[in-house]
TrEMBL record:
Source organism: Terrabacter terrigena
Span of domain ABC transporter: 7-234
Entry GO MF terms: ATP binding
Origin: domain of life: Bacteria
Listed PANTHER family: ABC TRANSPORTER, ATP-BINDING PROTEIN (PTHR43335)
Pfam families for this protein: ABC_tran (PF00005)
Annotated PROSITE patterns: ABC_TRANSPORTER_1, ABC_TRANSPORTER_2
Keyword Ribosomal protein tagged: no
Name of the protein in its database record: ABC transporter ATP-binding protein
Keywords per UniProt: ATP-binding, Nucleotide-binding, Transport
Keyword Zinc: no
Family listed: Belongs to the ABC transporter superfamily.
Length: 323
């Protein structure tokens, strides 16, 4: 039997004046799945999350949330919780008072014990009686998540939940998200961090200027990376470069200036996974050491840059001449 869909979006379009924020967007999220939304700034992630939260309506297309069609009225659909552009909280109230006020606003009585548990889950129990105005961005994000937890959502929608989080805060947030998914809650979250998505998401949707350019598992996304730059640490750079230059599908790139100054025995090569495998086999066969082989940019990030037509910032290193 197929797992029921928590979100089913088809052909969603949304414009703001001349700006096309979403164009023919499809999205499927199953119950119990953590689904990542990625894309460069302005790709349409927040707009799409806003539609899921009932903050705006689509211009066209169909949207079903938790099995019910979303109409034109703007309201948070039943069973949905979350926030975009940071949670709406009261700066003068304490963390605990904020949670109590928010649950009262939603007309749902919540036992004091539930509030304590939610604060504990996001790691804010020690600062429960501190006023929100002294909270950092990461602490506010965690309190927003605690408020969402209290509604016992079946679909949780989060806009860059890892924003501003220190490692301990990140652990709490990751723990909450995976815990909710394990009990059947669907989570849709945007993030600019591929490592967070890799840690949490089964599937991702990549948006670029309002269009879906990829949807599927992270394994499938990594395959879109094509050629990736790797650093090879070896004891004999010149010898390793000779071997690498003889391998089909592999290019030796100029060592960056900083590494050259440090006198590092590092080789920078560009190629696909098969060419990289061949390099290791041939280096070892030639009696040359491979102390380390690591991608300069992770295959996931590389796939993202390729699919969205963005660059890694610095221009691609020049190709080194064969010796
Ligand atoms: N209320 C609005 N009025 C006018 N334009 C808007 C509005 N909301 C979004 N846009 C535009 O729609 C496009 C998509 O914006 P959106 O905020 O959804 O992107 P995003 O992927 O969330 O970006 P970021 O990563 O920077 O948060 C952008 O060009 C943005 O300027």
């Amino acid at each position: 039997m197929q797992t029921p869909l928590a979100v089913r979006a088809r052909g969603i379009a949304k414009t703001f004046g001349d700006v096309v924020a979403l164009d023919a967007v499809d999205l499927d999220v199953t119950e119990g799945e953590v689904h990542g939304l990625v894309g460069p700034n302005g790709a349409g992630k927040t707009t799409l999350l806003g539609l899921l939260l009932g903050l705006a309506g689509a211009d066209s297309g169909t949207l079903q949330i938790l099995g019910a069609p979303v109409g034109r009225a703007l309201a948070v659909p039943d069973g949905v919780a979350g926030f975009v552009d940071g949670p709406g909280l009261y700066p003068t109230l304490t963390a605990r008072q904020n949670l109590a006020a928010l649950t009262r606003l939603r007309g749902r009585g919540v036992a004091a014990r539930e509030v304590e548990e939610a604060l504990e889950q996001v790691g804010l129990d020690a600062v429960a009686d501190d006023a929100l105005r002294g909270f950092s961005l990461g602490m506010r994000q965690r309190l927003g998540l605690a408020a969402a937890l209290l509604t016992r959502p079946r679909l949780l929608v989060l806009d860059e939940p890892a924003n501003g989080l220190d490692p301990a805060g990140k652990n709490h947030v990751h723990g909450v998200i995976t815990g909710l998914a394990a009990t059947g809650t669907a989570v849709v979250m945007s993030s600019h961090r591929m490592d967070d998505l890799a840690a949490l998401c089964a599937e991702v949707t990549v948006l670029a200027t309002g269009r879906v350019v990829f949807s599927g598992t992270l394994g499938k996304l990594a395959l879109e990376s094509g050629e990736v730059d790797y650093r090879v640490a070896t004891t004999d750079r010149a010898g390793a470069a000779r071997v690498a230059n003889g391998i089909r599908g592999l290019r030796v790139l100029d060592q960056d200036e900083a590494a050259r100054r440090r006198g590092e025995c590092e080789l920078l090569v560009r190629g696909g996974v098969a060419a990289m495998d061949e390099l290791v086999i041939q280096l070892v066969g030639a009696g040359l050491s491979v102390r380390e082989l690591a991608p300069v940019v992770s295959p996931l990030e590389s796939a993202f840059l390729t699919l969205t037509g963005t660059s890694a910032g610095s221009s691609a290193p020049d190709i080194e001449e064969s010796r």
